[in-house]
Design brief:
Blueprint: H1 5-39, H2 44-60, H3 67-84, H4 92-110, E1 131-136, H5 140-151, E2 155-160, H6 166-172, E3 177-180, H7 190-201, E4 209-213, H8 218-227, E5 231-234, H9 239-249, E6 259-263, H10 267-279, E7 283-287, H11 293-299, E8 304-308, H12 316-324, E9 334-338, H13 343-351, E10 356-359, H14 364-386, H15 396-413, E11 417-424, H16 427-434, H17 436-453, E12 459-462, E13 467-473, H18 477-492, E14 507-513, H19 520-536, E15 542-543
Parallel strand pairs: 1-2, 1-3, 3-4, 4-5, 6-7, 6-8, 8-9, 9-10, 14-15
Antiparallel strand pairs: 11-13, 11-14, 12-13
Helix pairs in contact: 1-2, 1-5, 2-3, 3-4, 7-8, 9-17, 16-17
């Protein structure tokens, strides 16, 4: 069931109110424990309880607006951690310094929260599968906040307030990832102990584990490493930092099938090769006429071309030279498949545009292996050339190639293609006020949101500095507008962390629908004009339709 904006804001407000209402009680409990330690015999048990209370304030405070309290509690926690390692009561100077920190803590609570505006309700989950996260966190308010924040990006979060029941849950259903605190009610290293026990008794496989904790000392980090942690974050943690790491660690999408084009004038042999490669899980198409190749390449994203060397109307060498004259296909691997045995001829063929040479006849198993190796290497190199280094999205140049191909496919199949251009509003102000690192995090957050929320059939790219582009395939203008507007509302409510405090950012967008005569340049120009109209109308909005009307 999708949560509405009203209900979402109500849940966030209830969490903040609950946290604020609980703070006086927590301070009284802390004061009682402090008085016990100060006036009675030294009690390691009371010290442990005091540390646990302070630890919770340090980890959750900033999330609910109490940044000053969280910082003070974090400093006090470091002192208490040192005391826990000593058997005797600390000396008077150390005690008085801690007492001053206690007073500062009470003052910070009394100053109240400094809250940023609430976050938007999570929209329906993207077509991508929801990823299950087990969160082991005894601060339930903080855990609930993480659950709501990550839910916007399609994560289903199951919360455990202690180690109890975690092993049984993992045994019943392995999660996609686990997020644990180090300090739990069972002890100061209960989280790492739990992970170590699970790895000993359960098959965790490749489930990634992240620790999010107020402990930042060497012993805790070492225990996490020894237990097999994949990441370690010190509270308070910006949910977008955690999201970015989860996106990286849980990305297990199966490789798309390799896309192979076979050109051979012997129709039966060409189709045999195609069938063999299809059986191996590839998308393989056979053509018997070289004159059909350019048209096919223009409408399909081919990753490797297999061609016979000798064909009647156009030889393989001539076909390779012809293909290489088009800059779009300079990186397309071309592999000759022929009975030619003369090394001199083989080298000549490769010098004219080919990348490799396979001899006929070729065993089916050998064909599959050879094509797989070459196609995988080509895909990896292509990814390095076509992906933006910061966001992992397609680059501007690669995006225009894909748009050209998608327009050709849409016209060939009479299916709708819609283009959207997005621009982050006042992005220069983000860099000027919060720094370029914060600006980079904003870009990555929008990239992750777009990648998670658009369909698998759509294409998203970083079009320019703070500009993004999306191709909606088999999607008309109205549906694209609805889908993107939901993402816009969601993005505008995300709280981005910075040293100066949380801030929010919006984006504007222009949408253009392709028609039968659309070309890359004209479609981009129309979407760009609509983007400018959105900017001129006040930003944080989407404009669609004919910009000339």
């Amino acid at each position: 069931m999708t949560i509405t904006e009203e209900n979402y804001q109500a849940e966030l407000a209830a969490l903040r109110t609950e946290y604020a209402d609980e703070l006086p009680k927590r301070l009284r409990e802390i004061d009682t424990l402090w008085q016990t330690l100060e006036n009675g015999p030294w009690s390691p048990e009371a010290l442990h309880k005091l540390h646990l209370h302070i630890h919770r304030l340090a980890g959750a405070g900033t999330t609910f607006g109490y940044a000053e309290m969280s910082k003070t509690a974090r400093d006090l926690e470091k002192r208490l951690m040192a005391w826990l390692r000593e058997p005797d009561r600390p000396g008077r100077p150390t005690w008085e310094a801690a007492k001053a920190q206690m007073a500062k803590l009470a003052t910070a609570v009394g100053n109240g929260p400094q809250l940023a505006p609430g976050a938007a309700a999570p929209p329906p989950l993207s077509p991508m599968e929801s990823r299950l996260i087990y969160l082991v966190e005894d601060d339930l308010a903080l855990a609930e906040d993480f659950r709501l924040q990550l839910g916007r990006f399609g994560y289903a979060v199951r919360v455990f307030p202690s180690t109890e029941g975690v092993e049984a849950a993992v045994a019943e259903q392995r999660p996609d990832a686990m997020v644990l605190d180090v300090v739990l009610p069972e002890g100061n290293l209960a989280g790492t102990d739990l992970l170590r026990e699970m790895r000993a008794h359960l098959d965790l496989g490749d489930v990634p584990v992240i620790f999010v904790t107020a402990r930042d000392d060497f012993d805790a980090r070492l225990a996490a490493i020894r237990a097999g942690a994949d990441a370690y974050y010190h509270k308070p943690v910006d949910p977008m930092f955690l999201l970015d790491r989860l996106e990286h660690l849980t990305q297990r999408e199966a490789d798309a099938p390799f896309r192979i084009l076979i050109v051979d004038d012997e129709a039966a042999l060409a189709e045999h090769y195609a069938l063999v490669l299809r059986q191996a899980g590839m998308q393989a198409t056979s053509l018997t006429e070289p004159r059909q190749v350019l048209e096919w390449l223009a409408g399909n994203d081919v990753e490797l071309l297999l061609t016979d060397l000798y064909m009647p109307e156009c030889s393989g060498m001539e076909l390779a030279r012809l293909i290489r004259q088009d800059d779009r296909y300079l990186s397309l691997p071309i592999v000759f498949l022929s009975t030619e045995q003369a090394l001199e001829q083989q080298l000549k063929a490769m010098s004219l545009g080919g990348d490799d040479f396979l001899g006929k006849p070729i065993e089916d198993r050998h064909l599959v292996t050879a094509v797989t190796i070459r196609a995988r290497r080509a895909r990896e190199l292509r990814a390095l050339m076509s992906q933006d280094s910061l966001t992992g999205l397609l680059t501007h140049a690669r995006f225009k190639e894909r748009l050209d191909a998608e327009l050709a496919r849409g016209q060939r199949k009479a299916s709708a293609v819609t283009l959207a251009l997005l621009d982050i509003d006042h992005f220069k102000r983000v860099n000027d006020e919060h720094g370029h690192l914060a600006g980079d995090r904003v870009l990555k957050t929008l990239a992750n949101l777009l990648r998670r929320r658009i369909r698998r059939s759509d294409v998203v790219a970083r079009y320019g500095g703070e500009e993004f582009a999306v191709i909606f395939n088999d999607c008309d203008e109205e549906d694209a507008l609805h889908m993107l507007d939901t993402i816009r509302e969601d993005f505008s409510a995300i709280q981005h962390g910075a040293r100066e405090g949380a801030f929010q950012v919006t984006f504007s967008a222009g949408i253009a629908a392709a028609d039968a005569g659309s070309r890359v340049g004209s479609l981009i120009e129309q979407a760009d004009q609509n983007l400018y109209r959105a900017k001129d109308a006040g930003r944080n909005r989407i404009v669609a339709g004919d910009s000339t009307s």
